[in-house]
Amino acid sequence: MMQLSVKVSRFDPDTDSEPRLEPWTVEVEEGARVLNVLDAIHSLDPTLSYRSSCRAGQCGSCAVKVNGEPALACTEEAADGMVIEPLDLPVIKDLMTDLVSGISSIPRINTCDCGIIPKQEDIERIKPLRDCIECLSCVSVCPAMKVTDFLGPTSMRSQMRIALDPREPGNRVREAISQGLFTCTSCNRCWRVCPKNIETPGKAIEKLREIANREGLTLPRHQEVSNLVKTTGRSVESGKYAFLDLVDEVIEPYGEVKGEVGFFSGCMFNARLPERALDMLEVMRNAGIRVIIPKEQVCCGSPLIRTGQTSFLDELKEKNIRAFQDRGIKIVMTMCAGCGATLKNDYDTPFKVMDVSEVLTCFGLPPLTKVPVTATYHDPCHLKNGQQITKEPREILEKAVERFVEMPAQCCGSGGGVRSGMPDVAAALGELRREAINKTGADIVVTICPFCEYHIQEHSDRPVKNLMTVLVQALGKEPASLQ
Ligand code: FES
Q1: What fold, for 243-362?
Q2: CA 382 to chain centre
Q3: Ligand 1: centre distance to CA 476 (Å)
Q4: What is the pLDDT along the chain (483 residues), one digit of tens a residue?
Q5: Which residues does ligand 1 sit against, CB inside 6 Å?
Q6: Rounded distance between C-alpha atoms, residue 42 and residue 44, angstroms
Q7: Could you tell me the sign of the dihedral formed by the alpha carbons of 456, 459, 465, 467, in that order?
Q8: CATH 3.10.20.30 fits 2-97, yes or no
Q9: Index of the ligand 1 atom closest to the CA of residue 55
Q10: CA of residue 225 to ligand 1 center, whole Å
Q11: What does the domain layout of the chain look like in residue ranges?
C-alpha cells in the first residue's frame, strides 16, 4: 500500500460561488490509478461526485484534468501531490461535467438503404478515426471553441469518418464548413490530449479541407496564398530584404567548429522577419556551429497542407529535400515551428530535422550574461503540440534572462490559415493571449515561431521577442536591424 496526498476540486453550483481545491490523504494499492484515489476519497466522503463506468479506458466517462492536463482517471497512474480537477467544460458537480450537449452534437451517419457493404480498404481508411470514446477531452481544450460556435474536433473527426463511409448517401463537407471547419487553428492540442491518440487535425480537419478544395470551397484568401506559392515558391511576398539574399551559403563559426547544420529558413523568416534569422546566425557563430543555407529551398508547404490545398505539394517537398540532400547535410535546423512540424510530420526526410532550441541544447550554448528583464514564454503550438518541445526553449530562456515567469500554454490564433482566412477568430484568440500575458506581469514575451511573434505583437501590451534576439542580447551584442 502507499499513502498519497492529493487535491481534488469541489464545486456545487447550487451552493458555491467558485470551485475550491480540497486536500486529501488516502491509502491505495501500489500502481493505483487516479480513479482508485477518487474511490478511496469517496469511501470517506460519499458526497464527492465523479463518473466512471468501464474502468478500462473504453467508455470515456471518467475524463478529468490531472495536474492541468486531460486524462482518463481509470488509466492515469496516481501520483503523490497530484491535483484533480474537472475538464474545462460546464461543471455539474465536483468532477462531473456536462457531457450531454457535447456528445449529442457529434454528427452521426445517415446510412442509406442501398445494400452497400464497406470494402476492406474503406474500413482501413476509416480506422484511424473510429476509436473515439467521446470523453470530450479534445473539446475541453479546443481554442477555437472558446471564441466561436465551432462544433469541435470530435465532430470534425466524425464528419471525416462519415465522408469515408460508402454507406453515407450525403456530402457532409458543406455541413462541416457551416460547423466551423475553417476556424480550427491546427494547434494539434486535441490530438495531444486524446487518450486514443486520434490525429484529428491531420487525419480529419485537413482531409475535409482537401475535399472542400476539390469542390471549389476553399476560402478565397487561402487560394491567394496557394497561387503565391505556385508562382513564387513562397507563401508571403518579400519585403525590402529577404534573408536568403542577404547571407552567404556557408556561415562559419567564430572559433572551433563543434557542429554543422543546414538551415531551413521558412517563408516568414526569409521575407517578413529576416532580422530574427540573422540573430540566429550570430548565436550559432558564437556557439561553434557551422550553418549551411541552400538558396534553392522553397516554402515547406505547411500553409497548403493546413488549408487542404495539396495538389503541388510533392514538388515543394522534392525541391526542399534535394536542396539539403545534395549537400550531404545530416541535420536540418528549423526556427519556424510550423516549418519544423511540417518537415518532421509531413515529410519523409533522409536527414534529421531539429528545432533551433534542440540544436542549441545538443551542441551547447555560448557563455551568456543574463539580460535584466522578467520574461514569459509563449509556447508555439507547432513546437509544443507539433514537435512536443517545451523544455528546451524554457531552459535556454532561463539562462538568458534574470527572471522567468510561466504562462499557461494556449494557441495565439494565428495557425491553420485562421489569421488569413478568419481574422476575427484569430483576433479573438489573440486577445485571450493579451489577458494571459498581462497576468504574468512580465516585461517581455518570448517565443520562437514567426507567426506567433507577428500575431501576438498585435495583441500584447509588452514587446514580443524571438528567443534568438534575447540570446544575442545575452551575448552582449546588438540584435540585427535592417532599417
Ligand atoms: Fe471508462 Fe475510464 S471508466 S474510460
Answers
A1: Rossmann fold (3.40.50)
A2: 4
A3: 55
A4: 999 999 999 999 999 999 999 999 999 999 999 999 999 999 999 999 999 999 999 999 999 999 999 999 999 999 999 999 999 999 999 999 999 989 999 999 887 777 888 889 988 889 889 899 999 999 999 999 999 999 999 999 999 999 998 888 778 899 999 999 999 999 999 999 999 999 999 999 999 999 999 999 999 999 999 999 999 999 998 888 999 999 999 999 999 999 999 999 999 999 999 999 999 999 999 999 999 999 999 999 999 999 999 999 999 999 999 999 999 999 999 999 999 999 999 999 999 999 999 999 999 999 999 999 999 999 999 999 999 999 999 999 999 999 999 999 999 999 999 999 999 999 999 999 999 999 999 999 999 999 999 899 999 999 999 999 999 999 999 999 987
A5: 52-55, 57-62, 72, 74
A6: 5
A7: negative
A8: yes
A9: 3
A10: 44
A11: 2-97, 103-214, 243-362, 368-474
Look at residues 402, 370, 409 and name the one whose alpha carbon lies nearest to residue 386: 409
End-to-end CA distance of the chain: 67
User: Ligand 1 centroid to 35 CA: how many Å?
Assistant: 9
Task: Return phi, psi of residue 98, to 5°.
Answer: -80, 105
Quick one: which atom of ligand 1 is closest to the CA of 59?
A: 1
Q: How far apart are the CA of 424 and the centre of ligand 1, in A?
A: 38
CA angle 350, 355, 356 (to 5 degrees): 125
What SS3 class is residue 144? helix
Say which residue the cell 478544395 belongs to: 213
Mutate to test the pocket of ligand 1, among 53, 77, 87 (most ligand atoms within 8 A of CB): 53
User: Which atom of ligand 1 approaches the CA of 54 most closely?
Assistant: 1
Ligand 1 center to 176 CA (angstroms): 29
Is domain 368-474 annotated with CATH 3.40.50.1860? Answer: yes
The architecture (CATH level 2) of 103-214 comes to Orthogonal Bundle (1.10)
Same topology between domain 243-362 and domain 368-474? yes
Q: What is the pTM for the complete model shown?
A: 0.91
